């Protein structure tokens, strides 16, 4: 509960920063940000057995310091919503194009409880936009706002197509720098 509380306070602060004065966009190395964030999350959850595979290749994206917070929230959710003895998270990055626009596609696959199809869209909705009485917290709506600030996209799929109970695959597209 303490970890969740600290995460909520951090998310409220970051949401306020996005709305008022976010730091400027610059070239950010995905591999470096992911490595630092994974280390931080593993220290936070040192009592859990967590195996994380990270990208081996360096990719530069148009982002800022808020990217670490977005990745932190994805990893935080992957751990908090995982009942397995060993938490497995695979992070992959690759080049991707949409209409000749170059992006870096980052996928976060986990072996957690997954997200039913009926909830996949609403998990990114903020409380102000929410019509449903179900909430997952600020984390995912914050991630969406950060990624959209970069002119990117985010969505979630089943880790194993057609079976949400086998885990989630969060996909982020961020413009390549």
Automatic annotation (TrEMBL):
> Which Pfam families does the entry mention?
HATPase_c
User: InterPro entries under this entry?
Assistant: HATPase_C_sf, HATPase_dom, His_kinase_dom, Sig_transdc_His_kin-like_C
UniProt KW keywords: Phosphoprotein
Molecular function terms, GO-annotated: phosphorelay sensor kinase activity
UniProt source species: marine sediment metagenome
The protein here is known as Histidine kinase domain-containing protein
The Histidine kinase domain sits at: 1-177
The leader peptide range reads none
* Gene3D superfamilies found in the cross-reference section: Histidine kinase-like ATPase, C-terminal domain
């Amino acid at each position: 509960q303490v970890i969740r509380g600290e995460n909520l306070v951090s998310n409220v602060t970051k949401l306020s920063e996005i709305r008022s004065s976010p730091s400027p966009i610059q070239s950010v190395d995905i591999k470096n940000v992911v490595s630092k964030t994974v280390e931080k999350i593993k220290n936070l959850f040192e009592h859990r057995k967590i195996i994380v595979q990270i990208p081996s290749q360096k990719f530069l994206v148009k982002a800022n310091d808020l990217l670490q917070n977005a990745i932190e929230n994805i990893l935080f959710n992957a751990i908090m919503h995982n009942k397995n003895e060993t938490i497995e998270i695979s992070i992959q990055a690759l080049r991707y194009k949409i209409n000749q626009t170059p992006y870096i596609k980052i996928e976060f696959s986990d072996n957690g409880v997954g997200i039913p199809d009926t909830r996949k869209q609403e998990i990114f909705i903020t409380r102000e936009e929410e019509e449903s009485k179900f909430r997952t917290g600020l984390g995912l709506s914050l991630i969406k706002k950060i990624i959209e600030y970069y002119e990117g996209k985010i969505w979630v799929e089943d880790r194993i197509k057609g079976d949400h109970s086998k885990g989630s695959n969060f996909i982020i597209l961020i413009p390549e720098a």
